[in-house]
Amino acid sequence: MPVHARIQPASVLCLCALLIGLTFPLTALAADPEPLSPDTQKALEAAVAKELKAYGGKDPIPGAVVGVWIPGKAPFLKGIGLSDIAPAKPIALDDKFRVGSNTKTFVVTVLLQLVDEKKLSLEDTISKFDLGVTVPNADKITVTQLCQMESGLPDVYNVPEMDKIDITVNSKFTAKQLVDIAGKQPPLFAPGAKWNYSNTNYLLLGMIIEKVTGHTVADEIKNRLLVPLELKNTSYPVTDPAMPTPFSHGYVLDKSGKWEDNTVSLPPSLTGAAGVMVSDMADMKKWVKAYVTGSTNSAATQKARLTCVPIGVEGLSFGLGIGCSGGWYGYTGGIPGYNTGAYYFPEKDATIIAFVNSQVEKPEPGVANSIVRDFTQILFPNNVAFPPPGKPNQTAEKAPTAH
Fold first, then answer.
1. Euclidean distance between CA atoms 399 and 256, whole angstroms
2. Is the peptide bond before 363 cis (omega within 30 degrees of 0)?
3. Residue 339: phi, psi to the nearest 5?
4. pTM exceeds 0.85 for this model
5. Longest dimension (CA), the chain
6. What are the chain's domains?
7. pLDDT, block means (10 residues), the chain with 403 residues
8. Which residue in 34, 46, 220, 402 could disulfide with 294, CB within 3.0 to 4.6 Å?
């Protein structure tokens, strides 16, 4: 029945009579989904514990929140370890985390909507937007190349000049200031020649969004995505470096190998469109499926998003602000104190989330992605995300249908 159809009075009376006559609860009409087997749940928990220990110091990383959703099975949701060391507080499923570069998935989605609205093209170059910045090859680098990390621009956070700046939580930066710092460096390669991860690209994309819309990136993400999708626990901090409650504390290893609280260490303006956002597991579960399936934008721009190119690492490729591995699509985020991974498997309508309260990304693929890899090995052995070298997936990667 179409949502606008009207129910006739007679139908209502019949429906009421039917409900009155029922002598058993409506919930009995559908059986609750079965949980994953006890052995599988134990294996998943053991995988988390293994990775927290492997990426830890004298003690394992304090905590993680993980979730698995597979059709026909009850969700596997687990908090392991602590959200706060002193005083000790167990980590909770609704704790918020800084999601780092998962921010980029929101930025790209706004950008694709603007393309759908004919307000820009993926083939536009940086120079078209008159951003007031000086970067090499601005008249050749396209929006696609920025999104896909093929611009050749160095990552501003890794250039020597940044090491000379005293950064505190009260520091103020603009995207233009940061891009100008990166722009003083020679390009790493000609646009489109290679792949190299650079946060500078996404600071530029944020500037393009603001130039085209006349609004801040924060407002565009909020009004276009967070409000319509009811992502109520997701935010884009602009000035306040504090975490919204409830949240997991973030930790770094000190020189002695002990965990030190690093929850509030950077000003929001330093990371901006490259990685400033905050979210929780429930919101990110909803979000990753939304943008991977293309419910947020047109089929044409979704096809562009999911055109994944090799990055030079076996089993990994990259689309427009999206990672692609073993049939899984999503993103990871690392920022001091936090490492997050959110991935969706279209073939099975499955989702895996791993939020960890420390940014430990070496050795590759990092702690959050290692948990995701372990989970995929246990649950979908023919579709392993981030497969170890020399162990390719048994099934070829296939892009999901955009709709």
1. 46
2. yes
3. -140, 125
4. yes
5. 78
6. 45-379 (3.40.710.10)
7. 32 30 41 93 98 96 98 98 97 98 98 98 97 97 98 97 94 97 97 97 98 98 98 98 98 94 97 98 98 98 97 95 98 98 98 98 95 98 90 42 31
8. 402
